[in-house]
Specification:
With 369 residues, the protein is an alpha/beta fold. The relative contact order is 0.09. It has two domains: 167 residues, Rossmann fold; 130 residues, Irregular (Cytochrome-c3 Hydrogenase, Chain A, domain 2).
Length: 369
């Protein structure tokens, strides 16, 4: 690192930033620095696959505005395969996957971006050559290797599997049409291959760069999977309800809601619940962490939270600009028509995604959820 212009002081400063990112005590900075140095020597190998995705999470990670993260963290990992950023292509790229799987079995981290389509033999998502067949009218025919086959090959030898983004973690937008493609979240596919294989879900559409890097750092420093919630998400990033930390919570408490986009007043900061905000059922630290180097976040940019960190996104939280259905808050009358406080000072506590799932799971007489 000294050859690359990184001083010891800069390195320790970065270790301090890492402690802050992970919510750790400053007293652990020396230990973090030591762990990072050990990681640099070992260069843990990473195979990053992309399934039925838009590459948005990779772009989110690469758009991080922290040069120390790019210089230090990413350089500590041996990215053996990443279809978006790697220089190699074709047979050379495929060989990198095969050699890593063979030589580093039990040590590499398998990162998957996007869910896995399983219908029709996985033919909806393929890359790499599975086999060649006999010539046909002078041309060599080939069969591309489906994502399902790659998962069966790489999951058993992985130390852990990290599902990056809502699509990979819970199915996301592709799962809204799962009856056609057979789309499955990464954790479901992994469970069918290696039941006890550790899986970490990083929600978001896309996932925040800090969530991705922080999770990988946590795994490298502690040499174990971080504490996860019931949806296998790291609690340090997905342990707080957006509604409870929203900058417009005071407007919600006062019953001040935006009901028409044309009535927008930048000085009012009205609550966006009636415009489709899913903050009351979404767990993530967006209001505190913010995006683009802490500049802003969805609600701060006058857009409702779409709940992209939740398993219910996208299918069960759409339409995105419509209020949540059948939501009732403690201390509040029926929503959204007669929204208002019953008693001053009352607080809406215990609001969670589990409530939404319970409501969405009830079938009404018309057969609709």
């Amino acid at each position: 690192m000294e050859k690359r212009g990184i001083t010891r002081r800069q390195f320790l400063k970065y270790a301090g930033a890492t402690a802050a990112l992970l919510g750790l005590s400053e007293s652990l900075i020396p230990e973090i620095a030591r762990a990072l140095e050990e990681a640099a020597a070992g260069k843990p190998p990473v195979i990053w696959l992309q399934g039925q995705n838009c590459t948005g999470c990779s772009i989110s990670l690469l758009n991080s505005n922290y040069p120390m993260i790019a210089e230090v963290v990413l350089d500590k990992l041996s990215i053996r395969y990443h279809p978006t950023v790697m220089a190699a292509a074709g047979d050379v790229a495929m060989k990198a996957i095969e050699e890593t799987a063979k030589e580093m079995a039990g040590k590499y981290i398998l990162v998957v971006e996007g869910p896995v389509p399983t219908a029709e033999g996985g033919e909806f998502c393929t890359f790499g050559l599975e086999k060649e067949t006999k010539a046909f009218h002078g041309y060599q025919r080939r069969k591309d290797k489906p994502m399902t086959a790659w998962m069966e090959e790489l999951v058993p030898g992985a130390a852990a599997v990290v599902a990056v983004g809502n699509c990979a973690s819970f199915g996301g937008i592709p799962a809204a049409n799962a009856e056609v493609t057979g789309t499955k979240p990464v954790m479901d596919v992994v469970a069918g291959i290696a039941k006890d294989k550790p899986v970490i879900n990083i929600g978001g559409c896309p996932a925040h760069p800090d969530w991705i890097i922080g999770t990988i750092l946590d795994y490298l420093i502690n040499k174990k999977v971080p504490e996860l919630d019931q949806h296998k998400r790291p609690k340090k990033f997905f342990g707080m309800l957006i509604h409870e930390n929203c900058e417009r919570r005071a407007a919600f408490d006062a019953g001040l809601f935006l009901e028409d986009w044309n009535d927008y007043n930048p000085d009012m900061k009205l609550c966006l619940f009636k415009m489709g905000c899913k903050g009351p059922v979404t767990y993530a630290d967006c209001p505190i962490r913010r995006w683009n180097s802490g500049v802003n976040w969805c609600v701060g940019a006058n857009a409702p939270c779409h709940g992209c960190a939740e398993p219910a996104f996208y299918k069960d939280l759409s339409p995105l600009y419509k209020p949540l259905p059948n939501m009732h808050f403690p201390g509040l009358s029926t929503l959204p028509d007669n929204l208002g406080w019953i008693a001053a000072g009352a607080t809406a506590v215990g609001i969670g995604a589990h409530y939404l799932y319970k409501q969405l799971g009830k079938k009404e007489e018309g057969g609709e959820k």
